[in-house]
Write a structure and sequence with these properties.
2 copies of one chain form a homodimer.
Chain A (H helix, E strand, L loop, with lengths): L3 E3 L9 H5 L2 H12 L11 H4 L2 H17 L2 E5 L6 H9 L7 E5 L5 H10 L5 E6 L6 H18 L7 E5 L5 H9 L2 E4 L13 H9 L4 H16 L9 H14 L4 E6 L5 H15 L7 E6 L8 H6 L4 E10 L24 H18 L4 E8 L2 H22 L10 H11 L11
Parallel strand pairs in A: 2-3, 2-4, 4-5, 5-6, 7-8, 7-9, 9-10
Antiparallel strand pairs in A: 1-10
Helix pairs in contact in A: 2-15, 4-9, 5-9, 5-12, 10-15, 11-15, 12-15
Chain lengths: ~425, ~425
């Protein structure tokens, strides 16, 4: 087993008998997850289903982008960029074009800044949207299209790749008319579960990372966490869902995802979307927040230790980050760090993690440690799948549908009405 | 009055009579705030107290840094970097060296990456710590000192500035021995209230921003929000504190600070520390979290709309961000954006803000809009002071001391014990 749940700092918050009581409910959740019911559950078998043909096509497009571009503009919002961003933050050794994400807001200052960074540099574009009609990416794509046509004229088409619906939608149609490169988002995979489709794979490969290792890690995870149908309490993905459910029923209402490595910060944002959209409905769900440690121990730390006792914490721990930095030996001990001289920063940082988990636990905050072996693509693939599966189980334990997101539509309806979009001028939003 | 509280989306959550009931409590909070009691309250009169001599000294050092360095390494944790980071994110038009923050964690991969970015570039250093003994910045400073001495030998001292205690501490002592440049952190100003001291001013000036305009905005705020002793319910800083207190007493437990401009993301992190450390004690306080909109409407949006009804929201709105980008006119209406052609992105983005506030309010989330006039140094100075003052009032309304942070020590004691630091080998942390 690659990921390890360390439950020492759950002691007193989650008991064995409480966990045992979940045996039947976890089995029922697994049964629901494995039963086709029209919900987008394709992500569950995606790692083992993804074939050579798709990976080769992604790698070929990625190679072209790497050869021809200094900047890759990735246009998408929510699940259309958070997975790739998580991977680009996480994985060391990028050697492709600089990847800039846009179309995830409508801030003129942000859009201007991205466009100005394109000056004098060769550009490629990957626009990612199931429909093509979401306002944020559509506006950004208009601005980028104008730039591309001005810069490259009829050659622009060779530099644009769309990742979109297999059969319908505005973007699909534009793509066919203009002859842009095209990848498909499987219909049975929702946005926040799509990182292992071309949605995530193309930007990750273009940046120079090994998508085969990523998929290999996800396949390992599928075999470890999804396939076994017994001992679900010993299956870390199911067990983690049971732990969160127990904590939620005991009155915890905020789940703080934390890590002691900034390279995991994009992964925390991905987790916030995954859990927020999957479980935040019907007045339920833990509110997902993130913290970057030890940085935020001098920011949120006081609150975690002594504020309202509504928090639980999930901390990502890495057994080896592959970085051998040590505390330098100085001539003097003016700074009082003599006792650390020559010791590995990695070791000190993990000691800080354990020390903090203990302090928070003492202060009334249960902490689940998820220990991953390394900082590499295989581990990341496993982490993606582990949390996707566990989150889906969490949704079923809460008694909600983890695969819809009805609440995302409401701001859009108000916005279209206020913007005067044809068909939205009534009072339907009130 | 420069900042405006827009309370339309508090309707039904906060009533006039509830606010009226705060008259006496706000007066009592103001009385406590203005009474010297040994707590670090110097930030309250800092804008009007700061003299020409200090500003000139900061500007002179900043000029030297700008002339001699391609990179400014700012070493500090918590309040020693969050204010400067907020300003550097917020203010347009930086023209100084690239500013890299380190010493806010012990991640070997992060430290390695920062050090590797220094290769082949001229470096200056600003190390910021009251004592010099906090582990995170002390380790980073050791690594940086080794690099500086290797790179510059005896000339290194000319490139190092310390911002530290006026009289004591390890860093003060090293600074005197080595002849580094020196600025002082006033003893009566705590870390999270220190952005308008040299802690924030030196990095902000070095990056090329106008610290006189920043201080001018803060002075305006001091005169508007701190000096008047009557009609406190009409004083936005006091009124905002009353609103948060009412929401907290009605069962809201998470305060989500949001903005529709990525340039405000550093300010949100600064707010999280300010409120988290000031109000998160004795089992009290709203848990401070942040969101970046409209980005996170496709991430946290579902939760905000339909998850547990424990959220309230404070949204920073900017009347004018000084960016004239418009939606380009395309030949066709393939993408369905024809109805937006030629319209200002700034206008569309503010409409999204209002549409979303309405949707969240409809969904049971009270939203306070704080409208600032512009994106400039003066406005930022006013925002810093407004929130410092309001947060202190919030602490008094909660019945806690807003100026201490006892909970920050607990992870340190555990860590020193696990690291075997002399004097910490006992069991005092359990």
């Amino acid at each position: 087993m690659s990921l390890i749940l360390d439950e020492q700092f759950l002691s007193g918050f989650v008991t064995q008998s409480e966990l045992d009581a979940y045996t039947g409910r976890l089995a029922a959740a697994r049964e629901r997850l494995h039963t086709p019911d029209g919900q987008p559950k394709g992500w569950r078998t995606l790692p083992c289903d993804t074939g050579e043909e798709l990976l080769s096509a992604v790698e070929t497009a990625a190679r072209t982008i790497r050869e021809e571009a200094d900047i890759l503009l990735v246009i998408g919002i929510g699940g259309s960029y958070l997975g790739a961003k998580a991977a680009l933050d996480f994985l060391p050794g990028a050697n492709g074009p600089e990847v800039l994400f846009l179309g995830n807001d409508m801030s003129p200052s942000h859009l201007s800044e991205v466009l100005s960074r394109c000056e004098g540099r060769e550009i490629a574009v990957n626009v990612i949207s199931k429909s093509g009609s979401t306002t944020e990416p559509a506006i950004a794509f208009r601005l980028v299209l104008e730039l591309m046509q001005r810069r490259y004229g009829s050659e622009a088409a060779r530099r644009i790749w769309c990742t979109t619906d297999p059969a319908s939608g505005i973007l699909r149609q534009m793509c066919e008319e203009e002859g842009w490169g095209r990848f498909e988002i499987p219909r049975d995979v929702g946005g926040r579960f799509s990182v292992l489709t071309p949605v995530g794979l193309l930007p990750i490969a273009a940046a120079g990372h090994d998508i085969r290792a990523l998929m290999e890690g996800a396949r390992t995870a599928q075999r470890l966490y999804d396939e076994p149908d017994h001992d679900l309490l010993l299956n870390p993905a199911y067990r983690y869902a049971a732990i969160q459910d127990i904590l939620s029923r005991k009155g915890k209402s905020v789940e703080l995802f934390g890590a002691y490595e900034p390279f995991a910060s994009g992964l925390s944002l991905w987790l916030i979307q995954l859990y927020g959209e999957s479980c935040g409905k019907d007045g339920k769900g833990l509110f997902p927040a993130s913290a970057q440690f030890s940085t935020d121990l001098h920011s949120l730390g006081q609150y975690i230790q002594e504020g309202q006792r509504i928090l639980c914490e999930t901390v990502l721990d890495f057994a080896d980050t592959g970085c051998g930095l040590t505390v330098p030996v100085l001539g003097s001990d003016h700074d009082g760090l003599g006792y650390l001289e020559g010791r590995s920063l990695g070791e000190i940082n993990r000691i800080a993690l354990m020390a903090t988990a203990e302090a928070h636990w003492n202060g009334g905050v249960p902490v689940t440690l998820v220990t991953a072996p390394r900082r590499d693509a295989q581990t990341l693939g496993e982490l993606f799948y582990f949390f996707e599966l566990s989150c889906a189980v969490s949704g079923y334990l809460l008694g909600i549908n983890p695969f819809d997101q009805p609440g995302v539509e409401q701001y859009k309806r108000n916005m279209f009405r206020l913007l005067g979009k044809p068909g939205y001028t009534g009072t339907e939003a009130k």
